[in-house]
Amino acid sequence: MIDKKSHWETIYKTKSPKEVSWYSPRLEKSLEGIRSLGLPNDARLIDVGGGASTLPDDLIAAGFKNITVLDISKEALKVSRERLGEKARLIRWIEGDVTRVSLDPGSYDGWHDRAVFHFLTEADDRKKYVEVLGSSLAEAGHALIAVFGPNGPLKCSGLEIVRYSVESLQKELGEGFELKEHFLEMHKTPFDSTQEFLYCLFVKK
Fold first, then answer.
1. pLDDT, tens only, 92-127
2. Which end of the chain has fewer surrounding CB within 10 Å, N or C?
3. For all residues of the chain together, what is the average pLDDT?
4. What is the dihedral of CA 91, 9, 160, 163, to 10 degrees?
């Protein structure tokens, strides 16, 4: 079995953020989804797997004050800290596996995950992810989850993935979450290819 942490540490030690297929200089769709919630600036947001993403930069620029970034890779978090410089102190950084991490109950109003859930090929890992999500999200909190859609790739960064439809992703999250919105994005990779991402916005019942 692949050691997930070692795999991702190697990826970020040997490649720049712009050399991975999911890289985007600005996560426009994620930002649109978060803005659509109309959350106050003191809303508690967590970006799961957001290690080297530029989303925290844009959330700070948008005025959000309670931002957490969780990533399994110390190297990925280091990339963002160095990019943000002095602004890095405005963010809470957590190095950990989302299926193993301990987060305070009801501690987040908004959960964002772009390209983590589809790497969870084991049913037990997906169950643990949903348990962490359900526990740490506040009542009526929102989760914006982006995964490879029905026509997305079968592998990414040398790892098998699980592709999702709206129905299959809803089934994984279970009855504790209600689907509010969904849309597809054809993400253009740095290698001039495209990847189909499915974005689903859920609210915790």
1. 999 999 999 999 999 999 999 999 999 999 999 999
2. N
3. 93
4. 10
pLDDT (tens digit, 9 = 90+) per residue, 14-48?
887 676 766 687 899 999 999 999 999 999 999 99
Topology, domain 4-204: Rossmann fold (3.40.50)
Backbone angles phi, psi at 124, to 5 degrees: -65, -40
Q: pTM (2 decimals)? A: 0.93
The string of DSSP letters for 78-128 reads HHHHHHHGGGGGGEEEEES-TTT----TT-EEEEEEESSGGG--SHHHHHH
Closest CA to 5 of 68, 97, 80, 100: 97
Instruction: Specify whether the CB–CB gap between 115 and 179 falls below 8 A.
Output: no
Contacts of 21 (CB under 8 A, 6+ apart): 153, 156, 157, 189, 190, 191, 193, 195
DSSP 20: S
- Of 203, 195, 186, nearest in space to 163 by CA: 195
- Residue 167 has a CB neighbour count (10 Å cut-off) of 8
